[in-house]
């Protein structure tokens, strides 16, 4: 929590020094509207993550079973971890800096720079730096999602929709399907084979391109209120 408070303070200073603005320009108000955007983003992203994960499991003949050690304390710990980590990343990549980039360079350039930075950051957080193929995969995987989440910020002029989209994905991926740094939470995978040839390519397309594409369609046709 201290880290989040420091980032909030730094964000306020940046906004004040460069634009004489407060943190409210990040779109926390009106509260009801922003909470609705957050909730919609969370539900849509959670559904996309679950669908893509199950589709990939089907390609690999993989099954998911309830973790024998599962309890709600584990789940709550995972959600709390996701909440903190996601909000931190949103403040950094879809917060004050993106707001300023859009103001100074325009929406397209600002969104693109944010996405590139987000993809590069994950080279290090995923431990992929130095391995060319994983670096390309991680950059595409996270950079494209960063692109649509930054687009969500630009369209709604608020951090709340990308926050909901990001959190919905991470809660399902990390908490439900146990793919996060906290290890096995709700479900664990068993069985399965590594796909080859056309099936492997299909799996890569589904994992890398389908989530950002579906998310982009949702954001594009989201009605402004």
Strand order of the largest sheet: 1-2
> What's the SSE pattern?
HHEHHHHHEHH
The major pleated sheet works out as: 2 strands, antiparallel
* Coarse structural class: mainly alpha
Which strand-content bin applies to the residues? under 5%
User: What portion of residues is helical?
Assistant: over 70%
How many helices?
9
Q: Give the overall silhouette.
A: globular
Oligomer category:
single chain
Mean pLDDT: 95
Uncertain segments of ≥5 residues (pLDDT<50)?
none
Q: What is the gyration radius calculated from CA atoms?
A: 18 Å
**β-strand number:** 2
Report the span from N to C terminus: 32 Å
Task: Please describe what this structure looks like.
It contains nine helices and two strands. The chain has 225 residues and is mainly α. The chain has a two-stranded antiparallel sheet with strand order 1-2. The longest helix has 29 residues, at 31-59. The mean pLDDT is 95.
Defining key terms:
225 residues, two-stranded antiparallel sheet, 9 helices
Q: What would you say about this model in short?
A:
The protein is mainly alpha-helical and 225 residues long.
């Amino acid at each position: 929590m201290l880290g989040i408070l420091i980032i909030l303070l730094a964000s306020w200073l940046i906004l004040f020094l460069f634009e004489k603005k407060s943190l409210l320009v990040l779109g926390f108000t009106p509260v009801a509207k922003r909470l609705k955007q957050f909730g919609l983003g969370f539900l849509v992203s959670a559904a996309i993550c679950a669908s893509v994960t199950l589709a990939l499991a089907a390609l690999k003949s993989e099954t998911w079973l309830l973790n024998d050690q599962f309890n709600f304390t584990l789940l709550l710990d995972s959600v709390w971890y996701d909440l903190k980590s996601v909000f931190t990343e949103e403040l950094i990549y879809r917060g004050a800096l993106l707001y300023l980039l859009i103001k100074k360079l325009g929406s397209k350039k600002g969104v693109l720079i944010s996405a590139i930075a987000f993809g590069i950051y994950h080279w290090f957080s995923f431990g992929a730096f130095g391995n060319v193929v994983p670096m390309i995969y991680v950059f595409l995987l996270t950079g494209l999602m960063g692109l649509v989440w930054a687009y969500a910020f630009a369209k709604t002029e608020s951090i709340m929709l990308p926050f909901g989209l990001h959190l919905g994905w991470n809660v399902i991926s990390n908490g439900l399907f146990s793919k996060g740094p906290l290890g096995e939470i709700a479900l664990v995978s068993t069985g399965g084979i590594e796909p080859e040839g056309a099936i492997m390519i299909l799996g890569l397309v589904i994992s890398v391109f389908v989530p950002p594409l579906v998310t982009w369609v949702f954001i594009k046709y989201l009605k402004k209120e």
